[in-house]
């Protein structure tokens, strides 16, 4: 069974903030000590850290839930609770993180040691020392900690390679990789020997070096889910140069030029941007009979389908088996890499907008619906945040929450919807009577 895993869906939960404390200073010879309850500590963030030692998302196959610790509760003497440490989750280079609900890209992690907070911890609740005023010098009010952010994420690994080898199965990609790098891909005399992407480093005779990825063989219809290609086409998106390997001996009974067109069509169907990457045509198996004649025919067909002023892709005849022509191919690849820029794989429409923590005038603070049992149900992000941070064990906190609801216009909105005195109102699992 393959141990390569390049997609995973996980759930992350940042830590809740610690609850604030209600306490009063009670010491001998200190009359009217006043409030002394401290604030809760901040909850831990969930942080993704790029680790160049990881090659797959295998660690997320069985461990799909990541939860950071919550902050400590506030303490007496006005002392803050301890903030929780961040939960650091290691991911391989080239990991794209998407919000599973919206599909938007949250971040693209490509540099070793790069860090990104994917879920923010909640702030600590305030203790009663924070609520003292001249009118109320001894408040029995405290806040619960703010809930930590919780979200479902889709992880997608796109391996980091400068050059990608593409082509039909059994055209010699794995053999080529094995002779130009120290990689040891499994090679067999049957289709789909390569079932996972293989990566290797090339060093040319002139001292240049670059990373090459051998991707599992594509077949016609790969971009629509046929064969193995659809699973691994994503890995070519980060490459800057494509080496298009073609079996010029036609040992499989296919026409080399038709192979060339079919693979390019699959690349274009999967992502039109892949056609922006410069291609080098690698005419492989030139040690086989009829290869020279097939190469001549291939060049004629290629030239006939290009306009007079269009630049033809470079063609390099090689033999992976006898190592014929490899040095020239690698030097040309290194030269092309030097003048080829990085290609952005996401545009602004793919990216998630940065979080805005200010007040949005257009955003509704609450919503009202009605349950089957005629109970009025209040919901909404802002309202639920206030609800979760209210300490319902303290009467003063409950009264403060009631004043906040009134200030948000909840009473008026319920009255306008037809709520009458004595009607039940529910927020989450908490119920109370509406008083007109």
UniProtKB/TrEMBL annotation:
<dbReference type="InterPro" id="IPR006073">
    <property type="entry name" value="GTP-bd"/>
</dbReference>
<dbReference type="InterPro" id="IPR006169">
    <property type="entry name" value="GTP1_OBG_dom"/>
</dbReference>
<dbReference type="InterPro" id="IPR005225">
    <property type="entry name" value="Small_GTP-bd"/>
</dbReference>
<feature type="binding site">
    <location>
        <begin position="192"/>
        <end position="196"/>
    </location>
    <ligand>
        <name>GTP</name>
    </ligand>
</feature>
<keyword id="KW-0460">Magnesium</keyword>
<dbReference type="InterPro" id="IPR014100">
    <property type="entry name" value="GTP-bd_Obg/CgtA"/>
</dbReference>
<feature type="binding site">
    <location>
        <position position="194"/>
    </location>
    <ligand>
        <name>Mg(2+)</name>
    </ligand>
</feature>
<comment type="function">
    <text>An essential GTPase which binds GTP, GDP and possibly (p)ppGpp with moderate affinity, with high nucleotide exchange rates and a fairly low GTP hydrolysis rate. Plays a role in control of the cell cycle, stress response, ribosome biogenesis and in those bacteria that undergo differentiation, in morphogenesis control.</text>
</comment>
<dbReference type="InterPro" id="IPR031167">
    <property type="entry name" value="G_OBG"/>
</dbReference>
<dbReference type="InterPro" id="IPR027417">
    <property type="entry name" value="P-loop_NTPase"/>
</dbReference>
<feature type="binding site">
    <location>
        <begin position="284"/>
        <end position="287"/>
    </location>
    <ligand>
        <name>GTP</name>
    </ligand>
</feature>
<feature type="binding site">
    <location>
        <position position="174"/>
    </location>
    <ligand>
        <name>Mg(2+)</name>
    </ligand>
</feature>
<dbReference type="InterPro" id="IPR006074">
    <property type="entry name" value="GTP1-OBG_CS"/>
</dbReference>
<protein>
    <recommendedName>
        <fullName>GTPase Obg</fullName>
        <ecNumber>3.6.5.-</ecNumber>
    </recommendedName>
</protein>
<dbReference type="GO" id="GO:0005525">
    <property type="term" value="F:GTP binding"/>
</dbReference>
<dbReference type="InterPro" id="IPR036346">
    <property type="entry name" value="GTP-bd_prot_GTP1/OBG_C_sf"/>
</dbReference>
<comment type="subunit">
    <text>Monomer.</text>
</comment>
<dbReference type="InterPro" id="IPR036726">
    <property type="entry name" value="GTP1_OBG_dom_sf"/>
</dbReference>
<dbReference type="Pfam" id="PF01018">
    <property type="entry name" value="GTP1_OBG"/>
</dbReference>
<dbReference type="GO" id="GO:0042254">
    <property type="term" value="P:ribosome biogenesis"/>
</dbReference>
<comment type="similarity">
    <text>Belongs to the TRAFAC class OBG-HflX-like GTPase superfamily. OBG GTPase family.</text>
</comment>
<dbReference type="GO" id="GO:0000287">
    <property type="term" value="F:magnesium ion binding"/>
</dbReference>
<dbReference type="GO" id="GO:0003924">
    <property type="term" value="F:GTPase activity"/>
</dbReference>
<keyword id="KW-0378">Hydrolase</keyword>
<keyword id="KW-0963">Cytoplasm</keyword>
<dbReference type="Pfam" id="PF01926">
    <property type="entry name" value="MMR_HSR1"/>
</dbReference>
<dbReference type="InterPro" id="IPR045086">
    <property type="entry name" value="OBG_GTPase"/>
</dbReference>
<feature type="binding site">
    <location>
        <begin position="319"/>
        <end position="321"/>
    </location>
    <ligand>
        <name>GTP</name>
    </ligand>
</feature>
<dbReference type="Pfam" id="PF09269">
    <property type="entry name" value="DUF1967"/>
</dbReference>
<feature type="binding site">
    <location>
        <begin position="167"/>
        <end position="174"/>
    </location>
    <ligand>
        <name>GTP</name>
    </ligand>
</feature>
<dbReference type="GO" id="GO:0005737">
    <property type="term" value="C:cytoplasm"/>
</dbReference>
<keyword id="KW-0479">Metal-binding</keyword>
<keyword id="KW-0342">GTP-binding</keyword>
<feature type="binding site">
    <location>
        <begin position="214"/>
        <end position="217"/>
    </location>
    <ligand>
        <name>GTP</name>
    </ligand>
</feature>
<keyword id="KW-0547">Nucleotide-binding</keyword>
<dbReference type="InterPro" id="IPR015349">
    <property type="entry name" value="OCT_dom"/>
</dbReference>
């Amino acid at each position: 069974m393959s141990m390569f895993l390049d997609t995973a869906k996980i759930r992350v939960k940042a830590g809740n903030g610690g609850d604030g404390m209600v306490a009063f200073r009670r010491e001998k010879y200190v009359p009217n000590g006043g409030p002394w309850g401290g604030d809760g500590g901040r909850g831990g963030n969930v942080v993704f850290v790029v680790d160049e030692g990881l090659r797959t998302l295998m660690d997320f196959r069985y461990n799909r839930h990541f939860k950071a610790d919550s902050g400590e509760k506030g303490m007496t003497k006005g002392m803050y609770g301890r903030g929780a440490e961040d939960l650091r989750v290691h991911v391989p280079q080239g990991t794209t993180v998407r919000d599973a609900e919206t599909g938007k890209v949250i971040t693209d992690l490509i540099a070793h040691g790069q860090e990104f907070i994917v879920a923010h911890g909640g702030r600590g609740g305030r203790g009663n020392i924070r609520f003292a005023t001249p009118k109320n010098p001894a408040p029995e009010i405290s806040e619960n900690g703010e809930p930590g952010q919780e979200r479902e994420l889709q992880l997608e690994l796109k391996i980091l390679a400068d050059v990608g080898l593409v082509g039909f199965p059994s055209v010699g990609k794995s053999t080529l990789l094995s002779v130009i790098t120290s990689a040891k891909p499994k090679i067999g005399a049957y289709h789909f020997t390569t079932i996972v992407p293989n990566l290797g480093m090339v060093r040319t005779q002139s001292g240049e070096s670059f990373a090459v990825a051998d991707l599992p063989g594509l077949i016609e219809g790969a971009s629509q889910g046929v064969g193995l290609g659809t699973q691994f086409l994503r890995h070519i998106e980060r490459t800057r140069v494509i080496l298009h390997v073609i079996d010029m001996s036609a040992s499989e009974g296919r026409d080399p030029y038709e192979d060339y067109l079919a693979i390019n069509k699959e690349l274009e169907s999967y992502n039109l941007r892949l056609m922006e990457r410069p291609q080098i045509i690698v005419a492989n198996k030139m040690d086989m009979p009829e290869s020279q004649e097939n190469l001549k025919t291939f060049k004629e067909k290629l030239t006939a389908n290009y306009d007079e002023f269009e630049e033809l892709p470079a063609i390099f005849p090689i033999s992976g088996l006898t190592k014929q022509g490899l040095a020239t191919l690698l030097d040309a690849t290194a030269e092309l890499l030097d003048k080829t820029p990085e290609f952005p794989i996401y545009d602004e429409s793919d990216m998630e907008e940065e979080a805005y923590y200010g007040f949005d005038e257009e955003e509704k603070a609450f919503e009202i619906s009605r349950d089957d049992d005629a109970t009025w149900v209040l919901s909404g992000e802002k309202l639920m945040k206030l609800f979760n941070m209210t300490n319902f064990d303290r009467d003063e906190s409950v009264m403060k929450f009631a004043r906040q609801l009134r200030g948000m216009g909840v009473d008026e909105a319920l009255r306008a919807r037809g709520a009458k005195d004595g009607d039940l109102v529910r927020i989450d699992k908490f119920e109370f009577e509406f008083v007109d």
